[in-house]
Amino acid sequence: IDVPAGVPVTTESCLPACQTEGLVVAGLENGRECFAPLASRATIPSVQISDNESTTVCVSDHDQYCGAPNRLALY
């Protein structure tokens, strides 16, 4: 999902971008990427991991965590 141009990727920008697409879950990954898992992908195997594995801070807001490589922080 693309957040509006010039808007930094944070929880405050990713979730509304996903909601604009009609999706209710937002995932931040690797400090700067915004994803919206589709309901049809619910069958893809996933594993809940420890918060200790998702500790990359958001590039644009160092007070927030934005997942990690291959790790989504879901909101």
Automatic annotation (TrEMBL):
- InterPro entries in the record: WSC_carb-bd
Q: Name one Pfam family in it.
A: WSC
Q: Which residues form the WSC domain?
A: 9-68
The name under which this protein is listed is WSC domain-containing protein
Q: Which organism is it from?
A: Rhodocollybia butyracea
